[in-house]
Design goal:
Strand order of the largest sheet: 2-3-4-1-5-6-7
Helix content: 40-55%
Distance between the termini: 27 Å
Structural class: alpha/beta
Strand content: 5-15%
CATH topology of the largest domain: Rossmann fold
CATH superfamily of the largest domain: P-loop containing nucleotide triphosphate hydrolases
Radius of gyration: 28 Å
Number of strands: 7
Bound molecules: guanosine-5'-triphosphate, magnesium ion
Number of domains: 2
Largest sheet: 7 strands, mixed
Number of helices: 11
Length: about 325
């Protein structure tokens, strides 16, 4: 699981200096020990940040795209590299100054210690912006949705057509609600099992229900992330138009989704319980291909869609 929650709060350069120097000032008076404490405090802290940050080189593509959309992977890598650089430099200086202090006369020891402090201040000032960037990144990334890297069905369709109802109809346990960090948009995750294999179902209200040109750049990248995640896409139609969108508009979104996703897009006609024959026939003529017919609310016809999903996975 990709988690930024465990990355410790990122302090500013000033805060960190205060902590490190404060700790050293309380310690035994020997100058060499103070140097070691300052160095260790800062390096341990950076090490913790580096260790708890998910490995950016091994991210599943969904997370790669998502994180890139939120904070830019390149910037994040640069900031982490800056911490590593600062840590190495402080370590090197520590050794150098401990050696100098050991050799120095009693009156000179404190001068060396102060000089070391000055150099540490200058190093942290050099990475001040990177620390600030990391602090912001951590806040933005700490609530990433936890999505499994496994066979995934993405549900799309105009608003109100019954996407969430459909998801609930095919999943066994109660779906989990997670949120996207960059918008108020939520993401609904459900799972079902077939032949001991788990299937993940994702419904993202407000993301795959409008034409792409109405998207801001971050939303576009979130869609790109979903594109990587999707093994199958369901597109839910509501020919009854009780959703508030005429069939023509739904068709336009369907075409866009089909163009956007490389995975197979399966048309599913919902609200069968309230469709009369003529409406349905007109709709199918317009769609020009076969579609699954179901009522998510009455849970009829949904099993066939599940069967199709399982077949597609085998293929
Ligand atoms: N008659 C009927 N109503 C349905 C069916 N499926 C969903 N609905 C109703 O359609 C409305 C919208 O259902 P949702 O599942 O919330 O639709 P949605 O696509 O998730 O909507 P958004 O998340 O707002 O985009 C609700 O009032 C449902 O009760 C169905 O098969 N038959
Ligand atoms: Mg919904």
């Amino acid at each position: 699981m990709i988690e930024f929650k465990k990355v410790p709060t990122v302090f500013s350069a000033d805060e960190l200096l205060e902590i490190a120097f404060g700790r050293a000032s309380k310690a035994p008076a020997k100058a060499g020990d103070k140097v070691k404490i300052v160095s260790k405090t800062i390096r341990d802290y950076f090490k913790k940040i580096l260790k708890r940050t998910p490995n950016l080189g091994e991210l599943p593509s969904f997370y790669f795209e998502l994180i890139d959309a939120i904070v830019s992977i390149a910037k994040l890598k640069k900031a982490l590299a800056a911490l590593q650089w600062a840590s190495n430099t402080i370590s090197r200086l520590e050794k150098e100054y401990v050696r100098r202090i050991r050799r120095a006369s009693k009156n000179e020891k404190n001068r060396h210690r102060k000089e070391f402090y000055g150099r540490v201040v200058s190093i942290l000032k050099q990475i001040e912006d990177q620390l600030e960037f990391l602090a912001g990144a951590r806040e933005k990334l700490k609530n990433l949705p936890s999505i499994k890297d496994e066979f995934t069905v993405v549900i799309s369709g105009a608003p109100n057509v019954g996407k969430s109802t459909f998801l609930r109809a095919i999943t066994t346990a109660k779906p989990r609600v997670e949120s996207y960090p960059f918008t108020t948009k939520q993401i609904l995750l459900g799972y079902f099992e077939s032949n001991h294999l788990e299937y993940q179902i994702v419904d993202t209200p407000g993301l795959l229900d409008r034409p792409l040109e109405k998207r801001n750049p971050v939303e576009r990248q979130a869609i790109l992330a979903l594109k990587h995640l999707a093994d199958v896409v369901l597109f839910i139609f509501d020919p009854s138009e009780t959703c508030g969108f005429v069939v023509k508009e739904q068709m336009r979104i369907y075409e866009e989704i089909s163009k956007t996703f490389e995975a197979e897009v399966i048309p599913v006609i919902n609200k069968a319980d309230m469709l009369d024959r003529e409406v349905l026939e007109n709709f199918l003529a317009m769609l020009g291909r076969n579609a699954y017919l179901c009522s998510a609310e009455k849970k009829t016809g949904v099993e066939e869609v599940v069967k199709k999903i399982v077949e597609l996975r085998k293929a």
